[in-house]
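Hey, can you fold this one?
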Amino acid sequence: MAAAAMLATASARAQTVDEIVKRGEIVIGIDLTNPPWGFLDEKQEPTGFDPAYAKLVADKMGVRLKIERVNSPGRIPFLQSGRIDMVLSTLSITAERAKQVWFTSPYAPNPLILIAPKSTPFTSMAELKGKRIAVPRGSPQDITVTRDAVGAEILRFEDDASVQQALLTGQADFIGGGLLTPSALNKMSPGKDYEGKFTLNALYMGMAVKKGNADLLQFLNTFVFLTKQSGEIDTLTRKFLNVPVGDLPVF
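Sure. Predicted structure:
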């Protein structure tokens, strides 16, 4: 048992690309409750943009892919604790998060919007007073509505799926979600014509590694560059998101 525990600890703490290659496996944290980014298919296998892009990471590194399921608030703690090697899970790049992890250059745009049925009136944030707004706990949209939606009731959930269910079931009047969330909601519950009302955050998503892990960060930044150059990232974006990848900034 002691030997097994030591092996698990060593596996979780792999830092360099050489160590991951020697181990033969990369452990990537992905939320599988957030279609089309990450979800389970009819066979309960991971699918969506993030699992597909993670598979490309593993293939380019020449190792097996192990997906560790995470929820929205658990992504960074899993990384910091060494349970995963990296996060590839709709993690928007923010200054606050950059204090906790190191981000790669963006691999996808992720504007976050305020969402409600078409019949729900909205012209300004002032109208949200007394309204119920559901958001993933600790997310950029949580921070924005907490700051700007004065007098609103903020309902915080652990993942995007729970946030969406709050709107579908009438528990919430508005939710904060991604640009693709309205179309997903309309597929789940036709007739309400869910739509984006307001842009809360104009963000981009990056992969994240533990602070100090310069070796893996360099590999992943090179990987983003090469998959942009080859068109692989655009192919995945069109397949799962039905939009071109567009121009992605670098830093």
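The chain is about 35% helix and 25% strand. Let me know if you want another pass with a different chain boundary.
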